[in-house]
Amino acid sequence: MSNRNRRLRVIAGVLLNVWMMSSNVVFSVPVPPAASSNQTASSKIEKPADIKKQPETKSKSSAKETIKHKIIKQNPNKKEKDKNSQKIQTKNEKINLKEKFNFHKQEKQQEQTKGEIQDKPVTQDKLDAYQDLRNQAKFLYNSNKSADALSIYKKIPDAEKTSEDWMILANIAQDEGKTIDAVFFLKKAILADDKNYKAHYNLGNIYFYDNKINAALGEYRKVLRLNKDYAYAYYNKGCCYLKKKSWYNARYEFGLAIKANPDDPVFYYNLAYTYKMLKKPKKAQEALDMYNKLMSE
Predict the structure, then answer these.
(1) In a designed cystine with 197, which of 2, 8, 168, 226 is the match (CB 3.0 to 4.6 A)?
(2) What's 126's DSSP letter?
C-alpha cells in the first residue's frame, strides 16, 4: 500500500470519530418483549383465595358500637349543706325508695300477666296469619326490599319465629353493617333449630372476618358434625389454618374439601398456595394445573 493511501485512511478514520461524537449516535440493545397479559395462574401464587359464603349470605361489613359515658364533674369548692337541707334530702330519698318499690311491684305484676298470656296456646288462625306474614317478608327480602321485610318480621312474635326467620334477620343485619345483631340473630336461629348447620356456617364466617379464628373453627366443626359432606366447611377450615400458618392442617382440610366436591377450582388454588408455603413446587404446580383446567371448562 502506498504512503498516500495510508494517509487517506488515517484522515478518514479521524473524520468518522469526530462525526460520531458530534452527532451523539447511541447504539441501543434490543429489549425483550413484555410478558403476555393472558398468563395463567401457574405463573404466580401470591395469596390464597377468600372463604366461601352461603348463597343466601350477602356481603357483610363489620361495625363497632360505641358507648358514650356521661362525665359528672364535681365542684371541690362546694359548701356543705346545712342540717335542714339534709333532712329534706333524706325525706325525698325515702319517698323515692317507696316509688321504686311500687314500680318494681307493678313490673312483677305485668310479667306475671305476660306469662299467663304466653302460656295460653296460640290458635290456628294466628299461626296461619304468622305464616302469611312470613311469606310476605320472604318475598320482599328476595326482591331486595330488606327494610320492608324487616318491618313485617317485627309483627311476628319472637316465640313464633322459625330458624329460617332468624337467619334472614341476620342477613338483613349484616347488610346494614350491624354485626353484633347478626350474631345475636344467628344464635337465635340455632336455638330454634339446633340442626341448622347453615346458621353455624354463617356464624363461623362472621367470626372469620372478625379475625376470631378459633371461634370460626369451632362453628365449622359443628357444621361438619351435622353435615359431614359439606365441602365448603372443610375449605373454610383450611382458610382458617392458613391464617394460623398451620400449613399441614390447611393441606389436610383442602384435601377433604376436594374429596367432597372435586369440581370447585378455588379448592385447588388454595391447595397450590399451601404447597408453595410447604416448599413443594411440584405439588403446587399439579394443583394449579387442575385449577386452570377447571377454570377453562
Answers:
(1) 226
(2) H
For 1, 64, 170, the CA distances from 112, given in Å and listed in that order, are: 130, 36, 31
What tens digit of pLDDT does each residue of 154-177 get?
999 999 999 999 999 999 999 999
266 contacts 50 by C-beta, under 8 angstroms:
no
Cell numbers standing for residue 176: 346494614
Closest to 40 measured CA to CA, from 296, 297, 225, 234: 296
Q: How far is CA 133 from CA 19, 74, 123, 156, 164, in A?
A: 93, 54, 16, 7, 14
- Three-state secondary-structure class, residue 157: coil
What is the model's pTM?
0.63
For the record, the C-alpha cell of 190 comes out as 340455632
Q: Is 148 exposed, middle or buried (0-12, 13-18, 19+ CB in 10 A)?
A: middle
DSSP string, 231-294: HHHHHHHHHHHHHTT-HHHHHHHHHHHHHH-TT-HHHHHHHHHHHHHTT-HHHHHHHHHHHHHH
Secondary structure element (H or E) that encloses residue 37, with its range: none
Sign of CA dihedral 142, 144, 147, 148: negative
Long-range contacts made by residues 132-141, C-beta under 8 angstroms, separation at least 24? 134/162, 134/165, 137/165, 137/168, 138/168, 141/168, 141/171, 141/172
Q: Return the number of other C-beta atoms located less than 10 Å from residue 252's C-beta.
A: 16
Which residues, 6+ apart, have CB-to-CB distance to 190 below 8 Å? Answer: 163, 196, 199, 200, 203
Q: pLDDT digits over 97-125, tens only?
A: 555 555 555 555 655 555 544 556 778 88
How would CATH label the architecture of 230-297?
Answer: Alpha Horseshoe (1.25)
Average pLDDT value for the chain: 75
Residue 150 burial (C-beta neighbours within 10 Å; 0-12, 13-18, 19+): middle
Domain locations in the chain as residue ranges: 230-297
